[in-house]
C-alpha cells in the first residue's frame, strides 16, 4: 500500500536526519542567532538533498550511486574545505552584526549551504543504499509510483526532524544574551571546523 511506503520513507528520512552532525550544529546555531525560520530553512536544504539521495536508492539508479561512491574522496575534500570555511566564518561572527544581517540575508543561501554539504557527504548515499537494501526497498520493482511515495516520505521524515529541532532550540533563544550568542558562535564554529578537519583527514 502507498501509505506503508510513505511511512517507511518517513521513518528512514527521520532516522538519517536525526543524528547530530555538522548540519545539526549549523541549524542549532542559526536558530539561536538568526531565528527559527533560518534554522528550519537550513534543515529543509538538507531534507531536499536527502530526498535526492532517496531517489537514487529508491529508483535503483545504481550508476549514480556508484559514481558518487567512486568520487567520495573528492567529495570529502570539497565538503571538508566548505565546512572549515563555514566554521571559521561562524567562529569570527559578531552577534550584533549577525542580528542585523539575518534580516537582510537571503534564506536561499542558508538552504543552499546545507543542501551542498549534504550532497557532498558520501556517507549519506551509502546510508540510504544500505537501509533501502536491508529493508528490501533498493528497487521498487519498476513501480515508479511507489518509489515516488517512498521518496516523499523520506523528505517529510527529514523535514519533520528539522522542524522539531528548530522549534525546540528556538524556545531557548530569548534566554540568551549577547555574551551568550558569542559563546554559541565560538563553540559551534569550533565544532564545525572539527567536522571539516575530520572530513579532510578521512579523505587523505
Can you tell me about this structure?
This protein has 204 residues and is mainly alpha-helical. It has one domain. It is 84% helix and 0% strand. It is built from ten helices and no strands. Helix 2 runs antiparallel to helix 10 and helix 3 runs antiparallel to helix 9. It is globular, with a radius of gyration of 18 Å.
What labels describe this entry?
204 residues, 10 helices, mainly alpha
Instruction: Give the ordered list of helices and strands.
Output: HHHHHHHHHH
Shape category:
globular
Helicity range of the residues? over 70%
Largest sheet: none
Structural class: mainly alpha
Measured by DSSP, the beta-strand proportion falls in under 5%
The average pLDDT value, as a whole number, equals 80
Q: Please report the total strand number as a whole number.
A: 0
Give the C-alpha Rg: 18 Å
| Spans where pLDDT lies below 50 across 5 or more residues | none
The tally of helices reads 10
Kindly give the count of domains.
1
Q: What would you say about this model in short?
A:
By secondary structure, the protein is mostly helical. It has ten helices and no strands.
Helix-strand blueprint:
Elements: H1 2-17, H2 22-34, H3 36-58, H4 62-70, H5 72-92, H6 95-104, H7 107-119, H8 122-134, H9 144-170, H10 178-203
Helix pairs in contact: 1-9, 2-3, 2-9, 2-10, 3-7, 3-8, 3-9, 5-10
Amino acid at each position: 500500500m502507498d501509505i506503508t511506503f510513505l511511512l517507511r520513507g518517513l521513518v528512514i528520512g527521520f532516522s538519517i536526519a536525526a543524528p547530530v552532525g555538522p548540519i545539526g550544529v549549523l541549524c542549532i546555531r542559526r536558530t539561536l542567532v538568526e531565528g527559527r525560520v533560518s534554522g528550519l530553512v537550513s534543515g529543509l536544504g538538507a531534507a531536499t538533498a536527502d530526498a535526492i539521495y532517496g531517489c537514487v536508492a529508491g529508483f535503483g539508479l545504481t550508476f549514480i550511486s556508484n559514481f558518487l561512491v567512486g568520487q567520495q574522496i573528492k567529495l570529502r575534500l570539497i565538503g571538508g574545505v566548505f565546512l572549515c570555511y563555514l566554521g571559521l566564518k561562524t567562529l569570527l561572527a559578531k552577534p550584533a552584526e549577525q542580528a542585523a544581517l539575518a534580516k537582510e540575508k537571503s534564506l536561499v543561501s542558508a538552504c543552499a549551504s546545507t543542501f551542498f554539504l549534504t550532497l557532498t557527504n558520501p556517507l549519506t548515499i551509502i546510508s540510504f543504499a544500505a537501509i533501502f537494501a536491508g529493508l528490501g526497498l533498493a528497487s521498487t520493482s519498476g513501480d515508479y509510483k511507489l518509489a515516488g511515495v517512498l521518496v516523499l516520505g523520506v523528505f517529510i521524515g527529514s523535514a519533520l526532524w528539522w522542524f522539531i529541532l528548530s522549534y525546540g532550540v528556538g524556545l531557548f533563544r530569548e534566554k540568551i544574551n549577547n555574551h551568550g550568542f558569542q559563546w554559541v558562535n565560538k563553540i559551534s564554529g569550533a565544532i564545525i571546523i572539527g567536522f571539516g578537519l575530520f572530513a579532510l583527514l578521512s579523505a587523505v
